[in-house]
Amino acid sequence: MAAELFLEIGTEELPAGFQRPAMRDLERLLCKELDNARIAYGQVRTFATPRRLAISVGDVAAGQQRQELELSGPSVKVAFDAEGKPTKAALGFARSNGVDVSELTTRQTDKGEYLFLSKVVEGGATAELLPEVLPRVIASIPFKKSMRWKDLDIRFARPMHWIVALYAGQIVPFGCGSLQSGNLSRGHRFMAPHNFEVNGVDSYLAEAERHFVIPDMDKRRELIAGQIQAAADAAGGNLLEDDKLLDEVACLVEDPTPLCGTFEEKYLQLPRELLITTMREHQRYFSLVDNDGKLLPKFITVSNTRAKDPQVVISGNERVIRPRLSDAMFFYTQDQKVKLESRLENLKNVVYQAKLGTSYEKVMRFRDLATGLAAQLDADVRELTDRAAMLAKCDLESGMVYEFPELQGIMGREYATIEGEDPRVAKAIYEHYLPIQAGGDLPSDNVGAFVSLADKFDTICGCFGVGLIPTGTADPYALRRSAIGILNIILDRGYRISLQELIGKSVDLLGAKLTRPADQVKADVLEFIRLRFFNLLTGQGYPQDVLTASSGSRLLPNSKGRTISNLWPSLSSGW
Q: Is this structure's pTM higher than 0.90?
């Protein structure tokens, strides 16, 4: 009779970025084990909080499905000698399958007459298999970084403290490190740290919430979204929506409680992005704006505990954010005493990559490439492009970006605006980093697009030129993202350019930096971008056979009725 399988792994606090991937991997690995074991199952649900990973699999069959096998053995000529007696081949085939030679049959095939065995494999009991399956699943969950603790020969993202493993309401017994599986989970670390008994997923969810834990991540996220919106309304402001931050905060708390704090109005003179970034990246605070979209001197934080006196927690958060904003104000003021352009020389002392030289050398390379693109595609902005490329990385030497690296480009744009640079130049300093993520914003005009393309081409060609080529999931320089960014910018702007020529010029600008033959580097980069483009188009719904067949054509219609430029046929044919 089918029954529920439930597994919970209790740990020390898991990093926010680990939890959703771990949920997916836990489901994938357990389902794979059940499939391989021929155990049928139903609905799968996964859960995660900072202190636990859990999975519920419904309607797990009581036993493996029986198998009817047709096993092919050696040919009759090999299986029997001239006198018709079984040879070692026949005897070995029979023995390995636990039968006598007399139980084997012969069958005529295209290759001749062969021995066969019809065999029925009865399934084992699920309850007897799970003690081997579950510890194997736990040990196989991959993490970006894992750790060992005590003197145990086991690795996990964080030390494990308890394991709940149940099938049909009964404990699945096994050991994992120094732990033994059981039916006891734990409540919130501070508000209900004692154990509670689990009988299945329904009792688990109910008891967990009674112990100040909401295991369902999506439910927790929705609850936080409603809470912070209500807190914003109560504070007289509008919540600045931030889905990424909301996802992260949902992974930082087990029982969310929103609190609204304030900071001094004098800090509102800082750039908007600076304030938002400082509060979001360092404190995980949500920002508030007025009806005109202007920032208010208020923030919302989500606490993981229900304080007896919330004002004590609010005051603590206000004390924490004050020095952060004070530092930001100091760096912002000090940076303006030095012109952005004068920081270019300082880039000569910054190593971009050991084999590729300094950041100054990189700027000079992609500056050359960017102005070449402008001359080819929009000569009217050639000077603006040259200026933007020259200033693009100067804010890396500012105190603000040194303290808050995530503000690169943003502060360059702000300082360029303050210094009276052309608005298109200032905007391009920020936009040359775009797109920052998949599906993210792209440069809004040609100046930013040219500098962005040039920077990305230099990065890809430079890394390939010194042998830093992505392998498997390892891509420390984000070359795949850069390649996809190049393609999206070209398609978005409608440029008709020769990638082969751009790659060739970029490789030539690297000159003596190359440690591999230039022709090989050019070919490898072209193929690398071609594969990204192929994946990009298949992801948009184009059949692979259509893309392959279209390699000889000049234009390919896309889903919006427009045409994709001759990038695809050019890349497919290798030009």
A: no
